Amino acid sequence: MPRLANANRILAYSINPLLPLLLRATRDLPSAQNELRWLREYAISFTKSKTNHQRGNAVSWRKLLRTLCTARSGGMPLQYILGTQPFGELEIKCRKGTLIPRPETDAYTTHLADLISNKRNSFLSVRSKAQGYVRRSNQPLRILDLCTGTGCIALLLQSLLAPSISNLQVLGIDISPQSVRLAQENLRTNIRNHSLAPSAGKHVQFTRGNIFADGFSPVWNPGTPGTLDGNGDDGMKEWDILISNPPYISITGFCKETSRSVRNWEPKLALVPKYSDCSGEEDGDSFYPRLLSIGEQARTKLVLLEVADLAQARRVVRTARSCASRYWQRIEIWRDFPSQGNASTTIVDGEEIVLLGDGHARAVICWGLADGSLISE
After folding, report:
1. What pTM was estimated for this model as a whole?
2. What's the sign of the alpha-carbon dihedral 252, 258, 263, 266?
3. What b/e string do you get for 61-74 counting C-beta neighbours within 10 Å, with b at 16 or more?
4. Rounded-to-integer distance, Cα 361 and Cα 297, Å
5. Are 72 and 56 in contact (CB under 8 A)?
6. Which of 199, 120, 115, 124 is nearest to 159 (CA)?
7. DSSP string, 174-238
8. Cβ neighbours of residue 209 closer than 8 Å, sequence gap 6 or more
9. Count of alpha carbons within 13 Å of 259, Cβ hemisphere only?
10. Spatial distance between the Cα atoms of 114 and 108, rounded to a whole number of angstroms
11. In whole angstroms, how large is the CA radius of gyration of the chain?
12. DSSP per residue over 10-71, as a string?
């Protein structure tokens, strides 16, 4: 990380004595000024709240602001300090121990919701030998969000799809009990602040589960969802869509390429795969074969998997193409912002793969045999 020029520190101090603290974290003055404004607003709001006044020794907003700026200068993510991160129209609570939602995840989730809405009749159909594709009668659109973290993806899909698809079942699963509790809290909070309709409480569930457990079989529980560490007595249930932002950073990448803030504050469990028998950059790939296998067993029409970059995206394409059953009929790679820019192509083992949008490669999308060819047209 390059050192800050003294001239920048002096200029920052002349604007506000707290700015040099934030400059250590942001590395540029405009970003530091934005963060100071947000932190000031938070400090003023907090000191007016009941929580502050219920304390025996209420703190002033100026004293709190300096404390917050000092924490930020040490690398603490702004989202952990403020406690929230905007995600679409939602406000997602963030705490240490859970991965902070990123704008790129927001962008591809929104693009996926647009795709589903535009082709909802295809997503809500089933293959019939006699009639081709027919609409399912009174059946919900079933979405599985694995490695759900804060629940941001599941909740944003519910928010965006509910106006056009009234019958949804969105199930988020994570191995971390802390993440599941926070996802459930985010569901309740966004219903309470009217960002989600009250019906979302019936259409979204979060539960704990280990996707690598023997017999893992995610099921929708009409009552209180339980734990899914291995409950496959009846085999894998069918789901329409599987989406996942799994751990995908290699050990080397985590140590050398992530920022100090990420390494010191965000959960390594959500970033680096625990289950890996590879070395080098490919030790970040261990979740993808399992996720693709679950997608095939669940007869999904579409699977979306977040990736780190184009090299990893190409490896995931190869993994999907190596499936003996040839279940995955069409594959695309979406960049950071798939709704922007033009489409291009990349060649993977002689096959032309569409690259959609602007930015870096961010997600691999696979359409399955279960009506996926119709949807992807």
Report:
1. 0.90
2. negative
3. beebbbebbebbbe
4. 26
5. no
6. 199
7. ES-HHHHHHHHHHHHHHHHTTSS-TTHHHHEEEEEB-TTSTT------SSS---BSS--TT-PPP
8. 173, 174, 175, 216, 218, 227, 228, 229
9. 13
10. 10
11. 22
12. HHHHHH-TTHHHHHHHHSSHHHHHHHHHHHHHHHHHHHHSHHHHTSSSPPPHHHHHHHHHHH
Give the Cβ contact number of residue 338 at 10 Å.
26
Q: Which two tokens stand for residue 219?
A: 């099921």
Angstrom distance (rounded) from CA 61 to CA 42: 9
Residue pointed to by tokens 């959500």: 270
Q: How far apart are CA 262 and CA 241, in angstroms?
A: 30
- What is the phi-psi region of residue 20: left when phi exceeds 0, alpha when psi lies from -120 to 50, beta otherwise? alpha
Alpha carbon distances (Å) from 141 to 194, 220, 301, 372: 23, 12, 11, 14
Instruction: Give dist(CA 237, CA 197) in Å, integer.
Output: 27
- The model's pLDDT over 23-37, given as tens digits with 9 standing for 90+, comes to 999 999 999 999 999
Measured CA to CA, the distance from residue 287 to residue 302 in angstroms comes to 17
C-alpha dihedral, 315 to 143 to 128 to 366, nearest 10°: -10
Q: What pLDDT score was predicted for residue 282?
A: 72
Q: For the chain, give percent helix, strand, coil, nearest 5.
A: 40, 20, 40
Query: Model confidence over 59-115: pLDDT tens digits?
Result: 899 999 999 999 999 999 999 999 999 999 999 999 999 999 999 999 999 999 999
Residues 6+ apart with CB under 8 A from 10: none
Q: Is residue 169 a contact partner of residue 142, using CB atoms and an 8 Å limit?
A: yes
Determine contact, residues 190/90, Cβ cutoff 8 Å.
Answer: yes
Q: How confident is the model at residue 137 (pLDDT cuts 50, 70, 90)?
A: low
- Residue 1 banded pLDDT, cuts 50, 70, 90: low
